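Residues and backbone
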Amino acid sequence: MSFHEKSAWAMAVILLAGLGWYVRTIAGMSAGMEQLAPPVLPVVIAYIVVIVILSIVGHVLIAVAKPSEADDMMDERDKLIAARAGNVSGVLLGVGVLAALGAYLFTYDGNLLFHAAFLALMVSQIAEYGARIVYYRGGV
């Protein structure tokens, strides 16, 4: 397994955990209300900071486990995989944002718009790393 595939696995797991935490936090905040909780800047900042820290730690651990791979440049296959996975991610992001905007047109709920767009961003990134894993495993 190459460094780039290990990196994709680490990022997918980290982002899935972050998604779960964010959804659970917003659901908990919304439980006592009769509407979706508004976006709270400290929650968004905490999400971002934790993702960044876990990403750094994860990549350092991957690099320490096999230092010879850590400095590998992306070859043609890696570049093709990254491009194809990026296309999948872009489509999902576009569909997710359009769905968020469509939901806003029917509900006029800005809180829903924010959370749905943020969710689309998270899902598209998870899908990008998931696609990379699939492409590495399936052979592109």
